[in-house]
Amino acid sequence: MAIAWTTTIISSTIIIMLFSSATTAQTNNDNGGKPKRTHFIVEACKNASINSSEYRHVTKEFCVSTLQQDKRSDEAKDLHDLALIGVDILKGHIIAASGKVKEMMHSAMNGTSTAQRLRLCEMDYDAAVTILKVCNTMLKDYRGPKGGEKVGPPSFYLPDCVDKASGFVNYCEHELVDMPGQEALYKESIELCKLGDLNVALMQPYWDFTQN
Ligand SMILES: *[C@@H]1O[C@H](CO)[C@@H](O)[C@H](O)[C@H]1NC(C)=O
Ligand SMILES: *[C@@H]1O[C@H](CO)[C@@H](O)[C@H](O)[C@H]1NC(C)=O
Ligand SMILES: *[C@@H]1O[C@H](CO)[C@@H](O)[C@H](O)[C@H]1NC(C)=O
């Protein structure tokens, strides 16, 4: 009898626990659609991670935390919105890093290899920023693949564009490697390369001529 009682109590407790967690889940989903949007970022980032190359691998976690730096991500309704945010985040970080390179150039002796490499890095960053402005405009002009090519860019231009910008960021990283006294700038360039990889991976679906 006592055992039966205990079993009943435990079963009821489990049922109550199951019920309350179901209720919590329900409440979360109805919360103005917000968790749903977070879910969308996670979905897109999962895809980006799957589609990133082995050599330039992007984790889902890095992708999500990066895109969430911009609060517009919460409002993103499709990959196009997220791609635009990714491009803007990358551009902002490169501009900041470029400012530090410029500062470092003031103290570098003219004619030294340090000055020369910093100058090249500065040019690489400036080129990447210019290209990203083109990518941003292309994304804004994008009208989809079907019949969109007359008024907007073809979809494969979009990942191609961010890939080109990333290429220049990579050049700078190459300039700064093993450069004494420039370890902080080098570390930053590695982070920028990772951000570039993220943008490239996120936009992989645009390579698919039939889908977009
Ligand atoms: C993720 O990829 C799958 C398979 O390609 C696709 O069906 C889905 O729409 C993608 N999700 C997002 C959020 O892009
Ligand atoms: C990966 O990219 C390809 C295009 O290169 C696209 O067709 C595919 O849907 C993408 N996969 C995911 C999971 O997003
Ligand atoms: C390097 O040369 C430029 C002009 O060519 C000059 O403006 C700058 O002050 C010089 N920097 C140093 C550290 O000598």
Q: For the report, how would you describe the main beta sheet?
A: none
Low-confidence stretches: 1-33
* CATH fold-type name of the largest domain: Butyryl-CoA Dehydrogenase, subunit A, domain 3
Number of separate strands: 0
* Number of separate structural domains: 2
What are the secondary-structure elements, in order, as H or E? HHHHHHH
Architecture of the largest domain, CATH level 2?
A: Up-down Bundle
| pLDDT averaged residue by residue | 84
Fraction of helical residues: over 70%
Describe the structure.
Helices cover 72% and strands 0% of the residues. The chain has seven helices and no strands. Helix 4 runs antiparallel to helix 5 and helix 6 packs antiparallel against helix 7. The N terminus is likely disordered. Bound molecules: 2-acetamido-2-deoxy-beta-D-glucopyranose (3 copies). One 2-acetamido-2-deoxy-beta-D-glucopyranose binds next to helix 2. The site of one 2-acetamido-2-deoxy-beta-D-glucopyranose has 8 residues, from helix 2.
